[in-house]
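Hello,

I think I submitted the zinc ion job twice by accident. Can you confirm which output corresponds to this input? Input:
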Amino acid sequence: MSRDEVDKKGNKKDASSSKIASKINISERQRQTLIEVVDDIAGEEVKQVTLVLLNADGETTDEEISEKLDMRLNQVRKSLYKLYDLPLATFRRIRDKSTGWFVYFWTLHPERIDMFVEKKQQEVLEKLNSRLDYEENNMFFTCNNPECPRVIFQEAMDNNFECEHCGGRLEAFDNEQLITVLKEKIIELEEVKKKTQKIMKGEK
Ligand SMILES: [Zn+2]
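Support: Only one job matched these inputs. Its output is below.
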């Protein structure tokens, strides 16, 4: 733990360039999660760019990444903006006095992966809860044709209990089983969330 602090305070600006050293210490667990999540939601190219940023000593320009990966500058930039949107990376831009062009210095924020995971879990949980709410507070009707959608009471009544799609008769649909499954999923995810929080606290 103390080593961590020394390393953080030990970060110094590299005098030989205009870059700012920004290496952040993260745990192996955070590193793994970051790579998995990026690969999963953003794909292989963004993962490659992430790995370069992760192993860089400080800020890195898109051109440096492009050279290192032998990847087109366009693709590198696309990947960087995906990371920026997540938001797992930030940039600083400086105008090059000789060319007049902007140079972008990118920094990865791998420690934000914890926040990201927590946010995603919360989003899924909210979706499940609102679905449960919808199921518990409506009466559903079906024509029992698997290709036709279920309708709520008001819709069934408006159509004289006839299916809009196939003309079949609409009967009450028992959603008890669906409600049970939703409740189980919510409990399961709440457990996962608690476990995740414990892991995060333990390693911070
Ligand atoms: Zn139908």
